[in-house]
Write a structure and sequence with these properties.
The chain is an alpha+beta fold and 256 residues long. It has helices spanning 6-14, 19-32, 41-49, 57-67, 243-249, and strands spanning 85-87, 93-95, 124-134, 139-152, 155-160, 169-176, 179-187, 198-207, 213-221, 227-238. The protein is built from 5 helices and 10 strands.
Length: 256
């Protein structure tokens, strides 16, 4: 058996879909696209357990339609494309990178061991809170999301619950002792101030000894390609990830 696909599982749970619901949605998406498929609960289980690391194209297209995300963001193995090379008209060549992004910040080593959550890991529902300055509005603002955190080994997959914000948030993190490092992406609301812009960057957090709070900073690019940064914290709300708990937190945070 391969490595479990925690990313796909987190996305499904963040959409408040059971494995049966996901299979049904994939079948419906295939029918709408004129590409019928036979997705069922067992197939979803095999994807999430890592038994299947790359779905067949007909399922991949339906999955992308259901989740609104490219296959590469769903935790599957995908072929690495060749870099795109174009001539610059002056005898030289320009090579586009495989994928744009921001490198995570380097962290300082620490001798502390990572604290554990109440059930031995950090899986659960957390309140994500970050602060940022908007030059366009000349003020500071706070972004709040209830997020589902799933842990597999030293990896954390973070996905916001759909009802907690109209700007979906995702994070892919790695734990090294008491330091959490990784990347974040937020797709802003189409009808909001940022008109559906997609922002991404790096994040580094320190885990408090209780294991119930992580705090640190984010870094990312602004609209003028300047580098911005600000505080970010995750605070544990409930260590459960069952359907009742997800339903209870599928809402705007109280102080949003």
């Amino acid at each position: 058996m391969g490595t479990p696909n925690a990313t796909l599982r987190a996305i499904r749970m963040g959409m408040l879909l059971s494995q049966d619901d996901m299979a049904r949605a994939i079948r419906d998406a295939g029918s709408r696209a004129g590409e019928p498929n036979d997705a069922n609960k067992r197939l979803i289980q095999r994807w999430e357990s890592g038994q299947i690391t790359s779905p067949r194209p007909v399922y991949a297209r339906a999955l992308e339609a259901v989740t609104g995300l490219p296959l590469a963001a769903l935790g599957f193995s995908v072929p690495v494309p060749e870099p795109r090379v174009t001539g610059d008209g002056h005898g030289g060549h320009d090579m586009a990178p495989h994928s744009p992004g921001v490198a995570p910040p380097a962290g300082q080593a620490t001798t502390q061991s990572a604290p554990r959550g109440p059930h031995g890991n950090f899986s659960g529902v957390w309140l994500s809170r970050y602060e940022y300055f908007s030059s366009g509005r000349d003020g500071s603002f706070t972004g709040l999301h209830y997020v589902v955190v799933l842990q597999h080994g030293d990896r954390l997959t973070v996905r916001s619950l759909p009802g907690s914000s109209d700007s979906p948030l995702t994070m892919d993190l790695e734990i090294d002792r008491n330091i959490v490092t990784g990347t974040w992406t937020e797709q802003t609301a189409a009808n909001g101030y940022y008109r559906g812009a997609r922002y991404h960057g790096a994040i580094q957090l320190l885990i408090e000894p209780t294991g119930r709070r992580m705090a640190g900073k984010w870094v990312g690019f602004g609209k003028e390609f300047d580098i911005n940064t600000g505080p970010w914290e995750l605070v544990l709300q409930d260590a459960s990830t069952n359907r009742a708990t997800l339903d209870a937190y599928n809402r705007l945070p109280a102080n949003a």
